[in-house]
Amino acid sequence: MGESFGRWTLGDDEAMLDIVTSANVACGFHAGDPEGILATLTAAQAKGVVVGAHPAYRDLAGFGRRNLDASPKELYGDVLYQLGAIAGLARSIGAEVRYVKPHGALYNTIAYDEKHAPAVIDAIGSFDESLVVMGLAGSPFVEKAKAAGLTTVQEAFADRASTPGGELVSRREPGSVLHDTALVAERMVRLVQEGVIEAIDGTIVPVEADSICVHSDSPGAVEIARAVRDALVGAGVELRSFAA
């Protein structure tokens, strides 16, 4: 959330904050400006939603969804800078950033990468080792962060298709983003109850997840998030933030 920029409005943060328990808030490098980020932080605080930093590659034009060949030293500084920016904005209103979830291409790269993952982990640990670190369920990044002494949370995606190996299907591929609200809700109930997700080829993949993500910029995002929440609650699942 917090991804609007100047006159460009993206996502319905107010509506989403009535549904979710945690909000990944942009830090300005892939989207968002200080005014909008602060507004999202303020709204989240008013609605009792836990906020996390959503740092990205320095890629405003590409919305953080392009891989950048930054040096580990450069990436370390970029992540540290973003954490400092959002923490300062949150502190100004008496709020607190509780966790970190890298965004877009950075998230996907560090899931299995040996070059950029340590830089991100080091930056988080240097800034505040009490921050919870979120990563793709089953990925080596989660294990690396845990080995570094950080508290980790594994994440699954409601509105994205998975490969048989548990990775996210590239957005360049057809069917990578899911739009059928009923199907998405059914998949997430099955994830919670059975610990599996059906991959794009029909393979049943075991997934151990602590959190479910819905992208606020996807068409119908609010309806998808509401359908997932209603389905989980209807199945008797108690929803709360992992970082509360």
Report on this structure.
Forms a complex composed of PxpA, PxpB and PxpC. Its EC number is 3.5.2.9. InterPro entries: Glyco_hydro/deAcase_b/a-brl, LamB/YcsF/PxpA-like. It catalyses: 5-oxo-L-proline + ATP + 2 H2O = L-glutamate + ADP + phosphate + H(+). One of its GO terms (molecular function) is 5-oxoprolinase (ATP-hydrolyzing) activity. By secondary structure, the protein is α/β, with parallel strands linked by helices. It has one domain (13-234): TIM Barrel. Helices cover 39% and strands 14% of the residues. The protein is built from 8 helices and 8 strands, in the order αβαβαβααβαβαβββα. It has a 6-stranded parallel beta sheet with strand order 1-2-3-4-5-8. β2, α3 and β3 (97-100) form a beta-alpha-beta unit. The two termini are 18 Å apart.
Bin the strand percentage: 5-15%
Count of folded domains: 1
H and E order: HEHEHEHHEHEHEEEH
Computed over alpha carbons, the radius of gyration is: 17 Å
What is the name of the CATH architecture?
Alpha-Beta Barrel
Average the pLDDT over all residues and give the rounded result.
96
Q: Per the principal axes of the C-alpha atoms, what is the gross shape?
A: globular
Count every helix, treating DSSP H or I runs of 4 or more residues as helices.
8
Give the strand order, joined by hyphens, for the main sheet.
Answer: 1-2-3-4-5-8
| Secondary-structure-derived class | alpha/beta
CATH fourth-tier homologous superfamily: Glycoside hydrolase/deacetylase
Helix content: 25-40%
The CATH class is Alpha Beta
Protein name: 5-oxoprolinase subunit A
Keywords: ATP-binding, Hydrolase, Nucleotide-binding
GO biological process, one term: carbohydrate metabolic process
EC number: 3.5.2.9
